[in-house]
Specification:
Elements: E1 15-19, E2 35-39, E3 52-56, E4 60-65, E5 68-74, H1 79-82, H2 138-144, H3 146-149, E6 168-171, E7 177-180
Antiparallel strand pairs: 1-2, 3-4, 4-5, 6-7
Length: 182
């Protein structure tokens, strides 16, 4: 689940997206087929802590926020077919016995804050973006313009703009519970 976290921007502090990424290699990623967006009915996502869920079985991946389903992605056909990859591309999962490959193996849980990029996640010319997607030095342009955005993070005065995680729980289907330190 990802959120831009910017005020007055598309996908800002009141919404997030749930997206699955997969493919036989870069840049083949049919993420649009496994993407859903959610906007809170009132207020913002940073008004309080929320419960984000990921239910991952051999039949589906479902994401929820505060018991509201956001994304329901069934493994109803093999992922190569579902991704509509060209027949000229090698299927890296052709020998898998599972329709959900590559989602049939262990993955890491990753938490991050997206602050930039050149993939149009932050569209050019919006929300005070100081770099462009076609800038070969975009990361440098972003950093060099920190006077324009750094103050909005309210850091080090506060940690209001920080990604704050109260706790993470991991449950297995057989009922065993594990805890990760946040």
């Amino acid at each position: 689940m990802e959120s831009r976290g910017n005020d007055n921007c598309q996908g800002g502090v009141n919404s997030f997206a749930s997206t699955l990424h997969w493919g036989p290699g870069y840049p083949m990623d049919p993420w649009q087929k496994a993407h859903a967006e959610y906007t809170v009915p009132s207020g913002t996502l940073n008004d309080d802590f929320h419960i984000y869920e990921l239910e991952w079985t051999e039949d589906h991946i479902i994401t929820r926020i505060d018991d509201t389903e956001v994304l329901n992605f069934p493994f109803d056909e093999d992922m190569f077919t579902k991704g509509e990859f060209p027949s000229t591309v090698n299927n890296p999962w052709e020998h898998s016995k599972n329709k959900n490959a590559p989602f049939d193996q262990e993955f890491f849980i990753l938490f991050n804050v997206a602050v930039g990029g050149t993939n149009d996640y932050f569209p050019d010319g919006q929300c005070g973006k100081t770099w462009t997607n076609d800038d070969p030095r975009a990361v440098n342009t972003f950093y060099d313009s920190k006077d324009a955005w750094y103050h909005t993070w309210n850091y080090p005065e506060t940690h209001d703009s920080a990604l704050q995680i109260d706790y993470v729980k991991v449950f297995s289907l057989d009922g065993e519970e594990g805890f990760l330190e946040a």
